[in-house]
Amino acid sequence: MKKGFKSVAIYSSLKDKRVLKIALQISEILENIGVRVIFSDSFSSFKSSASQKQYSDKYIFNNADLLIAIGGDGTLLSSSRSYGYKGIPILGVNLGNLGFLTDLAPEDLTSNLVKVIQGEYVKDERFFLESNVSKKQTTLIALNEFVIHSDLVAQLIEYELYIDNTFVFRQKADGIIVSTPTGSTGYSLSGKGPIVHPDVKAITILPMFPHSLNTSPLVIHEEKEISIRMVSKKNKAKLSADSHNSISLSKGDVVRIKKTKNKLILIHPLGHDFFSSCRNKLGWSLGLNKSNIDIL
Fold this sequence. Notes:
Elements (H helix, E strand, L loop, with lengths): L6 E5 L5 H16 L3 E5 L13 E2 L1 H7 L2 E6 L1 H10 L7 E5 L14 H9 L3 E13 L5 E4 L2 E6 L6 E7 L2 E8 L1 E5 L7 H4 L11 E7 L9 E4 L4 E5 L6 E5 L3 E5 L4 E16 L4 H9 L14
Parallel strand pairs: 1-2, 1-4, 2-3, 4-5
Antiparallel strand pairs: 6-7, 6-17, 8-11, 8-15, 9-10, 9-14, 11-12, 12-13, 14-17, 15-16
């Protein structure tokens, strides 16, 4: 059995009333088994949570050995950039529609949460990407993907792609998605990109609606550095990280993207299975009951 957790922070980026109800339920469960609970200051907007003292990010970095993120994948992404990037393991409670990264359902919370806290869990390590833009003093972090896209609807941008400073192609397209295996089930999937198992050490490059009949997704090793140079002068473009932060790009700007040294540790209940998640969340094998599945 793995080491248990003694100090747990609770976070959510949602302002849904269900969030506070579940957070208080989690707090009661944990305190009953002797675990310290730290409420993030993300709960300060809930008036009925005034009795729960909230703590800053800095305090959580120094005192929590696990963070529970309540919400959907958007909440888990934001908590990963803020806390997971700093080394705090994250467990997700799913309130979203898809929730590919969040495991615990509210109806199964008590039994599964206690087991996880006491050391019955699976660790899942994921990598982040970071990007820098020439002439700009800004570094962005993404767990899912970076997207370079047109700032206007139905307008192509032109760019050149380099991998480890080797020229690959010049292209006109709506944009380009650079994703991790974690992001392969996100925006990249919507663009018909490949689903990449989390254990695969790869980065996927997916042009968005390219002005070409022979363009395919490109999968490269995770240690490769990607450079994208903006070519078009008249068309505006932006770089976004996990559909969150964005930077405006101009002709001549070079976006450099590479894997970070920091890793995210996701915590899953025992029995977690990537392919089961694909079946349940992406609609694989619709109409097939568990009893119909043969075990090899």
